[in-house]
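[Automated response] Your request has been received and processed.

Submitted sequence:
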Amino acid sequence: MQNDFETADGRITEAMDWVQANALEGVEDPMRLLWTASWISALCGRPEAAAQTRQTAQSLLASWAEAIQDPAARRSFLNDIPLHKIINAET
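Generated structure:
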């Protein structure tokens, strides 16, 4: 089932519809979900959805980082966690 973009797009759309209705509370790894949704949307030719989801991920990451008082710990949070670094770099 490699390269089954239609199925992937349908599943990620369902997931994002659920997130829209229920927020990210209860999602085990919200950052990974948002990044994956953005990536799949882009691959499926939906750049607006990809950009919107990427913006949501960036905003969430920024809000988490702002809660970290120690500047070194905040930098580490943003730059030493691979997925956070990717999302932060897409700004």
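Summary generated for your ticket: Residues 41 and 50 are 5 Å apart (CA to CA). Residues 5-89 form one domain.
If you did not submit this request, please reply to this message.
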